[in-house]
Amino acid sequence: MSVTIVVGGQWGDEGKGKIVDILSADADGVARYQGGANAGHTILIDKKQYVLHLIPSGILRNATTCYIGNGVVVDPDAFLGEIEFLNSEGIDIEGRLFLSNNAHLVTPLHILSDKASETGSNKIGTTLRGIGPAYTDKISRIGIRAIDLLNEADFKSKLHNNYELFASRSAGSNSELPSFDKLFEPYWASASKLIPYLSDVTAQLQEMVRNGDNLLLEGAQGTYLDVDHGTYPYVTSSNPSAGSACSGVGIGPTKIDRVVTVFKAYTTRVGLGPFPTELEDEIGNLIRETGVEFGATTGRKRRCGWFDIPLANRAIGINGTSDIALTKLDVLDGLEEIMLCVGYKLNGEKIDYFPRNVEEMDSVVPIYETIPGWKTELKHFSSYSELPENAKNYISTLEDYLESPIKMISVDPQREKIILR
Ligand code: GDP
Ligand code: IMO
Ligand code: MG
């Protein structure tokens, strides 16, 4: 009976969806606490692939109830599209999906605004899902919340105010901006369909905690996309790290029992921003091809590089990690040697602090330790003790550096391919 946070330890796409799906087998509830449809969480069951953007990864388990917390920003079309997809797959969500009254809505204005910022010199390579502008409105206290759907006139008036503000800021330069009525009507037609899902999710989750139910809090993105702890400004506009799980659903920190931090056995990132261990060579291409490193939301190529210990260690501190899930170890199967970044040099000198800004992070040179590869297909293994010695050596080297137990090792995208310790 416990509350577990699942959080990404790198730049997103660590395989959180797969890990949440596995842990959901024993969960009564799964709640998303931040982000929006910028996430893409993939689960593979019997060769069928499911990619979830907003709905928690627990939805694929019939006995699990799913919640979208107040900290999430919700695009109605993305939400409804996902429900339609799940229905078409024969997954019954009736009575199993709730949306917090306090969650903010992503409007068409947010998506236009995201697109407009990404054409300028401050481009950061967003997913163009309107996430930054939606959180900006939330913090500016002009956002529209799910509960506002209960009063159409009030909802329309709030959206109209935001429309006027957007039009005045873009000074007529946004050629894609339709008239207010053209924007409102289709938006309302979709958004009003969210009404049946509205709920006091905080009250529901607090009740589950009181009952001693098993609850998972599913993070989106990753620690280094965190607006506070990430490679600012090349970050998302929320706090993916574990600390925000509490405020993103409304459960206090004393109720959290476990924090599972998910790390890929190497590192990837999509979009712009510093990446010290990035491999812009044949090995980087090989990892991308073998790991199918293309974005689950935008289809963009993911940048690939070696595992970075200083980055992971800091993420472990930020998240208060109790245990690690290591994913995609099989992607390294074919390599003779694997490099592990164990420190950084800046201006030729080893540094004993974490790079302080993106300029320093762009300039650091990784210090590598070489680990022999195992040259064996790991997907055939289901227990730790049977793994090739060199694979065990890689895992235990990571554990020594990270001073945290690696309790789950994923060796294939399929749900059942997981080694538990
Ligand atoms: P998330 O955003 O953290 O949920 O991760 P994504 O779903 O965006 O990206 C992870 C990708 O790796 C997906 O395509 C998964 O199907 C795949 N995947 C997850 N675990 C493994 C693994 O152990 N091995 C391999 N080869 N692929 C995996
Ligand atoms: P999951 O949950 C990887 C990245 C974008 C961009 C930056 C800001 O699947 O791990 P945004 O649209 O959020 O304003 O973009 O964040 N990004 C992700 N990268 N995985 C994700 O989610 C991401 N969500 C956003 O590529 O660099
Ligand atoms: Mg993803």
CATH superfamily of the largest domain: Adenylosuccinate Synthetase, subunit A, domain 1
Cofactors, ions, other ligands: guanosine-5'-diphosphate, 6-O-phosphoryl inosine monophosphate, magnesium ion
Number of domains: 3
- Please state the second-level CATH architecture of the largest domain: 3-Layer(aba) Sandwich
Query: In CATH terms, what is the fold-level topology of the largest domain?
Result: Adenylosuccinate Synthetase, Chain A, domain 1
Global structural class: alpha/beta
Helical element count? 12
Beta-strand portion reads 15-25%
CATH class of the largest domain: Alpha Beta
Low-confidence stretches: none
**Shape, please?**
globular
* Cross-sheet strand order for the largest sheet: 9-7-5-2-10-1-11-15-19-20
Percent of residues in helical segments? 25-40%
How far apart are the first and last residues' alpha carbons, in Å?
A: 19 Å
Estimated radius of gyration: 22 Å
Record field, number of beta strands: 20
Largest sheet: 10 strands, mixed
Overall pLDDT score: 97
Description:
The chain has 421 residues and is α/β, with parallel strands linked by helices. It has three domains: 2-103 and 198-259, Adenylosuccinate Synthetase, subunit A, domain 1 (Adenylosuccinate Synthetase, Chain A, domain 1, 3-Layer(aba) Sandwich); 104-193, Adenylosuccinate Synthetase, subunit A, domain 2 (Orthogonal Bundle), CATH 1.10.300; 263-420, Adenylosuccinate Synthetase, Chain A, domain 3, CATH 3.90.170. It has helices at 16-24, 76-88, 108-117, 131-139, 152-169, 180-191, 201-211, 243-249, 282-290, 309-319, 358-363, 389-402; strands at residues 3-8, 29-32, 41-45, 48-52, 65-68, 73-74, 97-100, 104-105, 198-199, 215-218, 258-264, 267-269, 303-305, 307-308, 323-327, 337-346, 349-350, 365-372, 406-410, 418-420. The strands form five sheets. A ten-stranded mixed sheet has the order 9-7-5-2-10-1-11-15-19-20, sandwiched between helices. Strands 14, 16, 17 and 18 form a four-stranded mixed sheet that branches. Strand 19 (406-410) and strand 20 form a beta hairpin. Helix 3 crosses helix 4. The protein is globular, with a radius of gyration of 22 Å. The two termini are 19 Å apart. The model has no long low-confidence stretch (mean pLDDT 97). The chain binds guanosine-5'-diphosphate (GDP), 6-O-phosphoryl inosine monophosphate and magnesium ion (MG). Guanosine-5'-diphosphate is lined by residues 8, 12-18, 39-42, 44, 291-292, 296, 327-328, 330-331, 410-413.
